[in-house]
Write a structure and sequence with these properties.
The chain is an alpha/beta fold and 402 residues long. It contains 12 helices and 14 strands. The chain has a 7-stranded mixed beta sheet with strand order 3-2-1-11-5-10-6. The protein has a 3-stranded parallel beta sheet with strand order 13-12-14. It binds guanosine-5'-triphosphate and 2-acetamido-2-deoxy-beta-D-glucopyranose (3 copies). Keywords: Carbohydrate metabolism, Disulfide bond, Endoplasmic reticulum, Fucose metabolism, Glycoprotein, Glycosyltransferase, Golgi apparatus, Signal, Transferase.
Length: 402
């Protein structure tokens, strides 16, 4: 893999090592996208220090929110959702199955389970540190008769680990660099509970490079574009949202994107309403807000992305003109819940005006997509307020660093 950025071939050639990772099972698709950014940053730091590290993409599956019945949603490669060539222009990545092939079998040399410190912050003082420690939680891995460790490896049941340790870690992703260089010298290392590590530099240049490289798979973008053209009278040429297939050349000026003649709405429900959160609106109040925004911005169409199920009927009754992306059973089989969610995000990202749900990572990822497309921040960083919420703080504008 010579010729990758940050990897000058040394006299004896670089060593090829593999970094794998996984995230706490309950975390959703959009938080996982955020963890990818942290780990990509770690791999870049490792490569700057000489060794030829490759990031192995953790297959998608078994996500709590992917509830479509009769769909087998495990072992899904990243290529179904993202453009691999785009990811690779940022940091070397391979799919898990490629790793198995290159590595000569489904073996991971070392699993490192990341955890916090059992004692918490000592003296209430926060400092960056990492130490080998006894495992705090009950191990999710069990030893088999041959002495290998078995566990959840993204649904690849034949995968085994040769060794497992727990590390208490507190700090940014790059605190793992010395550990992965000096303490652990095996070829393939998997960091489990990788969300334990923090961003090296949230919303900095490196963050945005990785975020910009996470281009949705082309077939999903095309379906979204066809839907926009057919139901929302929205085309890139008319809306000033022309996309460059090469993200490294995509640098739209803030405010240059006009967007399609519709209001984009992300209305997160399910667990957001079960907890009776005060920052989430009732359906009635949400529809009232939608109507007032349509009037204010002179938009006749509204596109709604939502995870609501029973409530959808009520929503349709209150807002009969709303447009949703509703795939047929056959399309759903092909796209899966993850693909449908991406198409919803893509359509919201192209609306003239967008309003999302308070602290939903699904909405946050739409903000970023709109930032990349060059929308004016006023049209993006908006959220619904709870019916009785006193101070309804609006989302933060994160500017791209190119
Ligand atoms: N198709 C579709 N799916 C949605 C929508 N909102 C939420 N979902 C689904 O619900 C999941 C939960 O949202 P995520 O943002 O990914 O999960 P999370 O990281 O727990 O984030 P939060 O939204 O902050 O809970 C998504 O991954 C989707 O599977 C939506 O508007 N459309
Ligand atoms: C790594 O090795 C150094 C030097 O031997 C040691 O001091 C340190 O505790 C080790 N760190 C971890 C996380 O194992
Ligand atoms: C397992 O990994 C730990 C930490 O890297 C190491 O100290 C130990 O020797 C390894 N055990 C085996 C059997 O390789
Ligand atoms: C679609 O948009 C164009 C301008 O971009 C406009 O001229 C046309 O009337 C619109 N068509 C419909 C059906 O709204």
């Amino acid at each position: 893999r010579q010729g990758w950025p940050g990897c000058p071939p040394g006299p004896s050639g670089p060593v090829e090592r593999y970094l794998l990772y996984d995230v706490n099972p309950p975390e959703g698709f959009n938080l996982r996208r955020d963890v990818y950014i942290r780990i990509a940053s770690l791999v870049k730091s490792l490569r700057k220090n000489g060794d030829d590290w490759v990031l192995v993409l953790p297959p998608w599956g078994r996500l709590y929110h992917w509830q479509s019945p009769d769909l087998h949603q495990v072992r899904i490669p990243w290529g179904e959702f993202f453009s691999l060539t785009s990811l690779q222009a940022n940091v070397p990545v391979i799919e898990y199955e490629e790793f198995i092939a290159e590595n000569g079998g489904p073996f991971i040399d070392q699993v490192v389970v990341l955890q916090n410190y059992a004692e918490g912050w000592t003296d209430g003082k926060w400092e960056e540190k990492v130490d080998e420690r006894p495992c705090i939680e009950k191990s999710m891995y069990t030893k088999d008769k041959q002495g290998y460790y078995r566990g959840w490896f993204w649904g690849f049941e034949e995968t085994r680990a040769r060794n497992i340790t727990c590390l208490s870690a507190q700090g940014h992703a790059s605190i793992m660099v010395p550990v992965l260089q000096k303490n652990i010298t095996v070829t393939s290392v998997m960091l489990d509970r990788a969300e334990t590590l923090l961003h090296d530099h949230y919303a900095g240049k490196d963050y945005w490079n990785t975020r910009r490289s996470m281009v949705f798979a082309k077939h999903l973008r095309l379906i979204g574009d066809e839907f926009r053209a057919k139901y929302l009278n929205s085309t890139d040429d008319g809306d000033n949202t022309v996309y460059n297939e090469d993200w490294t050349r995509m640098k739209a000026k803030l405010g240059s994107a006009k967007g399609g003649p519709y209001l984009g709405v992300h209305l997160r429900r399910k667990d957001f309403i079960w907890g009776h959160r005060e920052d989430v609106p009732s359906l009635k109040a949400a529809v009232k807000k939608i109507r007032s925004l349509m009037k204010k911005h002179k938009l006749d169409n509204v596109f709604v992305a939502t995870d609501a199920d029973e409530e959808v009927k009520e929503l349709k009754r209150l807002l009969p003109e709303m447009v949703r992306f509703e795939p047929s059973t056959e399309d759903l089989e092909l796209l899966k819940d993850g693909g449908v969610a991406i198409i919803d995000q893509w359509i919201c990202a192209h609306a003239r005006f967008f309003i999302g749900t308070s602290v939903s990572t699904f909405s946050f990822r739409i903000h970023e997509e709109r930032e990349i497309l060059g929308f004016h921040p006023k049209t993006t960083y908006n959220r619904f307020c709870g019916d009785t919420e006193k101070e309804c703080e609006q989302p933060t504008h994160w500017k791209i660093v190119y």
